Amino acid sequence: MRSSLDIDVAQPEGFRPLSLDLRVPDADGAPLVVFLHGGGFARGSRKVFTPGIGVERSFDRIVAAGLAVASCEYRLSGEARFPAQLDDVDAAISWLTAHGADHGVDASRLVLWGVSAGATIAALTALRRTDVRGVVDWFGPADLVTMAAHDTGEAPADTREARWIGGAAADLPDLARAASPVHNVHEGAPPFHLAHGTADVHVPIGQSEQLAAALTAAGVPVELTRVPGGEHFWRGVTDTDPLFDAAIDFCLRVTR
Length: 256
Hints:
Elements: E1 2-10, E2 18-24, E3 30-36, H1 59-64, E4 68-72, H2 84-99, E5 105-115, H3 117-128, E6 134-138, H4 144-147, H5 160-165, H6 173-178, E7 192-197, H7 206-217, E8 222-227, H8 241-254
Parallel strand pairs: 3-4, 3-5, 5-6, 6-7, 7-8
Antiparallel strand pairs: 1-2, 2-4
Helix pairs in contact: 2-3
C-alpha cells in the first residue's frame, strides 16, 4: 500500500485549505473510493473512519481489497452552510480526476462512501453528478423534513441539521428539501448500498428506509441492510467485518 497524506486540494476564499489523505494499492489503476466522515456536519476528521474503528479495520481493509481511498475534508457547519460542502467534495473529485493517475488511481471508476452526515453529503453529491458509479451510505440523514420531527431534546433551530442549513426545516422548507437526498432522487441515479442499525437513536433507521423507497420508486438499484441492535457509528455491533465486506463487495461490483 502507498499513502500520500495531507494533500491540499482546494482553498475556498476566506477559509482554511482543504486536504485529503490518499491510500492506494500497490497495483496501478485502482478504482477510487472517496470517503466522507461523519460528525453531525459540525465536527469530525478525515483521519477517522468511524469512532471505535481504527485505520487497520477500515481504510486499510478497503485498500487490501484493491480499492484506493481518498478521505476528504469538507467545511463544517460552523465554517460554512449548505451547499458549501458539496462544492468542497466537487473540488476534491476534480483534483483526483486531474492527478489520480499520477498516484496509481483510476478516478473514472468512482464510488462515494459516507457515514452519518458524510453519507448525506455523499448521496447529494452523487445525485447531482454523472460520473459516480455508486454510493455507500451508512446511517445518513436522508430527509431533513422528517428528521426535524425526530425528538432530540433540542430546539428545532438548534439541531445538527438546522445549524447546517441555517435554520429550522419548517422555516426553510425549500432549503431543507434541497439538502435531503430523498427529495433529490431521480431516474438514472447511481446504485446505492445502504446500511443502518435498528437501534440508532441519533438518525432513525426510517431515514434509510425512506431513501431506499425513493430510489426503488425511481428505478434506481438499491440494497438496504438493517443491522439488528446496531446503534449510531455501529455501537452495539460486535463484529463490523461483515458490514465492511458487503460495502467493499458493492464498490468492486459497480466499478468493474
